[in-house]
Amino acid sequence: MVEAVLRVENLSVNYGAIKAVQNVSFSVNPGEIVTLIGANGAGKSTILRTISGLEKPVTGNMSFEKQSINHMSSEKRVSSGIVHVPEGRRVFPGMTVQENLQLGAFTVANKNQHKVAYNNVYEQFPILKTRRHQDAATLSGGEQQMLAIGRALMANPKIILLDEPSMGLAPLYIKKIFAIIQQIRDTGVTVLVIEQNANQALKIADRGYVIESGQIIATGTGAELLSSDEVRASYLGG
To answer: Which CATH number applies to 6-235: 3.30.70.1230, 3.40.718.10, 3.20.110.20, 3.40.50.300?
Structure first.
């Protein structure tokens, strides 16, 4: 049996009186693409933010490579291999593409590793290399999403948490982003992705979990959830 690289057990997170996440448990195995799908406000982003240390759980345990991360700082989580690409891309305006990438490597002390990481990112995203001296704010939405993912890859992650990577993108870029997610997995990086575009996410996912009102209501392989009448009716438009 494969040992999960990330395990979330009985996780609950509140925003004041609002119960955002309630008793959620799931796991992600090494080399998988796992997706969390559900409507807006279901608690998906809160789960990712809690895993990366931006929110504090009320109850439950999160472990990464068998080590509890509940009380680990966000910076230490990045150093250990957990890297989060937030919703909305969040590139730094007034800084070049290369300077944005450099910020992604802030936990990597070895400067030689920086050079290798730059080369890898520019190989994966050739458009970023051609625009490396350009202000990140002048990139298109799809290029900014590539930059946000490239910045995360600079930290040499073991698992990458992607929050709505296709949001607001043109159809051509949506197709590219999902192809990039598969390429990242093929390099050995595990992926946990949340997506409004549930149809596309399930097509590339090894496994998926359906979140509703802060709780998991269904789980299965990507193919199983795609073929589920209940999932199709609620999340896939028929």
So the answer is: 3.40.50.300
